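User: Here's a protein and a ligand (adenosine-5'-diphosphate). What would the complex look like?
Assistant: Let me lay out the input and then the predicted complex.
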Amino acid sequence: MRDQRYDVLFDPMKIGPVTAKNRFYQVPHCNGGGYRDPSAAAEMRRSKAEGGWGVIFTEQCEMHHTSEITPFIELRLWEDKDIPMLRRMSDRMKEHGALAGIQLAYSGVNGPNLYSKEVPLAVSAQPIRTFTNDPVQARALDKSDIRDLRRWFVNAALRSKEAGFDLICLYGAHGFGIFQHFLSRATNHRSDEYGGSLENRSRFVNEVISDIKDAVGDTMGITLRVSLDETIGDLGFSNAEVRDFVEMNRNLPDLWDLAQGTWEDCSGPSRFKEEAAQEALVRGIHELTDKPIVGVGRFTSPDVMAKMVRNGTLDFIGCARPSIADPFLPKKVEEGRIEDIRECIGCNICITGDMTMSISRCTQNPTFMEEWRKGWHPERMNTKGDSSSVLVLGAGPAGLEATRALAERGYDVALAEAGRAIGGRVARERLLPGLSAWGRVVDYRDYQISQKPNVETYFDSALDADSILEFGFENVCIATGAKWRRDGVARQHVVPFPTDDHMSLFTPDDLMDGASPTGHVVIYDDDHYYMGGVMAELLVQKGCTVTLVTPAAYVSEWTLNTLEQHEIHRRLARLGVMIELNRGVSGIGKDHVITNCMFTDQSRPIQCDAVLLVSSRQENNGVYADLVARQEEWADAGIKSVKLIGDANAPGPIAWATYAGHRYARELDAEDIGDALPFRREITELAAE
Ligand code: ADP
Ligand code: SF4
């Protein structure tokens, strides 16, 4: 069943005293649940164990209360009380023979300690470096603090062992872990034996690994996650210095876990980073050590994975996002079902769950973090309910996922699409600059649906209420999408504003339909996700001069949560796009727009030839409204239910649409739960008074 080309990925390999059953290594990744939703996180990891991963790690686990990264929600191992929660996690990870790993983090100069109110301790005294620019500084560790910190690591290692883990990862990458802070000149300004030469800067990590090996090294493997390049040249921990460090400390950890410098670089979205983007930084490090190496690079192709192992670049294939998009990736490779792999699209929506302290979702895998909360298995649907047929209207991400998942449950599904292609907004957006990988949302579902005998797809089928009532399907799922508004109404303007009819006005839909503005185009972005920035790129490609005006403080502001805002600004600036931040558009004249400052009364005109309004989207819910108005005819037509889902219900990112489609399919024919909560959750246990 398995293609021999992939055999190398299934060779067991030792990591210190323990052995991984294969080379599929789920590196630590956040999920927005952490200590607040431990059972949800544990079940998510269990699904990966079932899906065949050889190594499964937790997200970062704060190992001492003197270093925590509130408001972000990760795991905590501050005292014995935390052990049961972590034991549940390791139990689930090990259910199918995977090794269970815990990542211990002491955040140092990254931990503002907003919750514990402790004074942050760092390698050198510096302002706290986080996403939130907290007005807090850390004090430098003195010698007795360093002794304490070594002991705290040993305590955390002993607790990790008691919690059932096989592996400990010491976090020193992405600028987040204390080990990197010691190693890098940017964060280590010490003049004692812990600072200065590389040997001195390596002292702390040598001491901690030696301490931990003495304490638990007979039964647990110790891995070290270090940055491949801090990307600030000689001022920081450069790739050349990383190589010197590995060579000097050849066999220090039981495995080297190599990750790009900043988190933004390491987890770059597909818009800015290709698969295996870190290969050049990793290549050759293998020769400097006798220990195995794991590296990442949003690997979704088994051919690339096998090549990485075969050519000696990596021993283990590290995956975070690919394991989120498809927890069953290893199993599918093993069973020769490559075409069933649900490839990560590199949109970084999963990361937004962490950044917004909510709970993560995944565009490709709507079951992510719902495995426990809703009992959604990533590969298996619930059994079919009482009814038998469903008409799905609209083949965008919502309609496609509903169709795929309904067919999986055993319903007969008719998918009616007004256009001549499937994919809805994704079929259009995948053609925009940098978004081609997003097309995988369609490709995966297209193939899955093509394998189902119980789905019929009809193109050129813009159905209305009359035809739907005539067909008489038992259930009707309306996923007819949304269109960009033409009147600029969004957040700054809640009602239309003065606009001269002589000005050429465009929406993103117009451009995706092939319209080509010319001359100087002002983009008014009051949407704040990716579309405004992508449209700016497209217009520059078409030869326009572009000014992007936004009431926000950042271009494509919400992409701060997808770790790409800085890249978007950089790309637009390099393309010559003029960027006007903190400004709205208060009026559109025949040859200009009037921009207004968000904080003062000041306004000024910008001469232009056209305006592109990236404002908000209007639900395409007319057919639904017509059907609701004729509800008394449903019974005679044999219709039991009509439901509106996805962008047609409330426009949002693509991940919201696939989630809506999946939820529809899961809940069809389900018992009415009335006012009950539709998901499980955990709440804090009250202490005895
Ligand atoms: P979502 O993101 O919610 O899936 P999209 O806008 O991507 O929404 O997709 C909606 C799809 O529905 C589009 O492909 C569109 O052509 C199709 N559609 C819209 N109205 C109708 C209709 N009345 N009958 C069939 N298909 C429709
Ligand atoms: Fe990949 Fe996007 Fe899913 Fe994250 S949300 S795993 S980037 S598809």
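Summary: The chain has 23 helices and 29 strands.
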